[in-house]
Design goal:
Radius of gyration: 18 Å
Largest sheet: 2 strands, antiparallel
Oligomer: single chain
Shape: elongated
Structural class: mainly alpha
Distance between the termini: 58 Å
Strand order of the largest sheet: 1-2
Helix content: 40-55%
Number of strands: 4
CATH architecture: Up-down Bundle
Strand content: 5-15%
CATH topology: Hypothetical Protein Ta1238, Chain: A
């Protein structure tokens, strides 16, 4: 269990932040940008969740995702090989996103998508308040995915972590449609409508 007695430490005043292995990284590095983008996505999901009942299947799924995103942040904050040898296997000192978390996301996408009519057009990000907030979370998650793939170009990234954030935006898209009366209230894109 994490115990935080002090909120500020002053150790980041030099423009660096501590990683789980004890090393320090510039606050503007690709690794910290990816961790920050995941945090922003998690916050956007929290905002979406504020418009949804927590004890519903969608609410329960979002709460689980928020917890998984903290796992993802911990994964990204632990450079490869720092504490877990040369691979990305979880260990006593290392928290890694694992394939079963990715599989769960795919199961949720399939489950919630079963209720939806197939799309005949792209949809605009809107509709109900819950759907609109879910689309903001989806877009934030795509930004997090871009940050994770940017990190992967300069440092190794756990493949399961990259897959998780990719699948998550798909889940949020499906959940946005569910929040729009299972797609009935989706706002359809009309190409060239205002020419």
């Amino acid at each position: 269990m994490v115990k935080l007695n002090k909120i500020y430490t002053r150790t980041g005043d030099d423009g660096t932040t501590g990683l789980i292995d004890g090393s320090r990284s510039a606050k503007h590095s690709a690794r910290i940008a990816a961790i920050g983008a995941v945090d922003e996505a998690n916050s956007a999901i929290g905002l979406a969740l504020a418009a949804i009942e927590h004890d519903t299947p969608i609410g329960e799924a979002l709460l689980r995702v928020q917890n998984d995103l903290f796992d993802l942040g911990a994964d990204l904050a632990t450079p490869k090989g720092a504490l877990d040898g040369e691979g990305f296997e979880p260990g006593e000192m290392v928290l890694r996103v694992v394939q079963s978390q990715v599989d769960w996301i795919e199961t949720q996408i399939d489950h919630f998508n079963e209720k939806l009519e197939p799309l005949s057009s792209f949809i605009l990000p809107g509709g109900s308040e819950g759907a609109a907030r879910m689309h903001v979370a989806r877009a934030s998650t795509r930004a997090a995915e871009r940050a994770v793939t940017a990190l992967a170009e300069v440092e190794p990234v756990n493949p399961a972590a990259a897959s998780y954030v990719n699948r998550l935006s798909d889940l949020l898209f499906v959940l946005a449609r569910c929040c729009n009366d299972n797609g009935a209230d989706d706002v359809k894109w009309v190409p060239g409508a205002n020419r």
